[in-house]
Amino acid sequence: MSEYVILRYIENQVTDNMKTIVLLMCGKNKLSHKAKAKDLYTSPRFQKSIEYAKTLTDYSNIYVLSAKHGLLGLEQEIAPYDKSIYEMSVQEKKAWADMVIKSLSNISNLKEDKYIFLTDDDYNEFLLPYINNIELPLKDIRHDYHSEWFDNNKHFDTIKQIGVSNGF
């Protein structure tokens, strides 16, 4: 079982008011019509990331990082689009990150809440400097192995709930 990579951790971080926000990367494969974000992206990797995220936090605290729209709630309806973060220039990625940070600051506390990025570096590189409490479980895992990682780690929350320490 993979260990979480923790970049920064707030000392005595657990508080009653702290939320856990899980951020998912969007996907290239989409429905051909308008749909809720949770349904629009059709790849197995995306669907597995939702299922895994639901073991980490409340459904309402799971968001998609969309290359076109920025931050999306899973229930937010959008039309299909053809924009990829991988094709954005550095300037475009910085502008996109600014938009996402503004949205995140409206729904969460960037300094106190915990953020779990189920993304790769292209999605998180310009977001991380603004957030204090970060977990990157997919760090250093190639994009084409994410789906396999979710398969291998789907029981993590059960282990965590029964109090088995896994060296975290």
**Structural class per helix/strand content?**
alpha/beta
So what's the oligomer here? single chain
Given the C-alpha coordinates, what overall shape results?
Answer: globular
Radius of gyration, whole Å: 15 Å
**Percentage of residues in DSSP E strands:** 15-25%
Average pLDDT rating: 84
The helical percent reads 25-40%
The number of helical runs is 6
In N-to-C order, the SSE pattern is EEEHHEEEHEHEHH
- Number of DSSP E strands: 8
Number of domains: 1
As residue ranges, the low-confidence spans are: 1-13, 157-168
Order of the strands making up the biggest sheet: 1-8-7-2-4-5
Please report the distance between the alpha carbons of the first and last residues.
Answer: 12 Å
Largest sheet: 6 strands, mixed
Can you offer a commentary on this structure?
With 168 residues, the chain is of the alpha/beta class. It has one domain. The protein has six helices and eight strands; from the N terminus they run E-E-E-H-H-E-E-E-H-E-H-E-H-H. A six-stranded mixed beta sheet has the order 1-8-7-2-4-5, sandwiched between helices. It has a two-stranded antiparallel sheet with strand order 3-6. A hairpin with a 3-residue loop joins strand 4 and strand 5. Helix 2 packs parallel to helix 5. The termini are close together. The N terminus and C terminus are likely disordered.
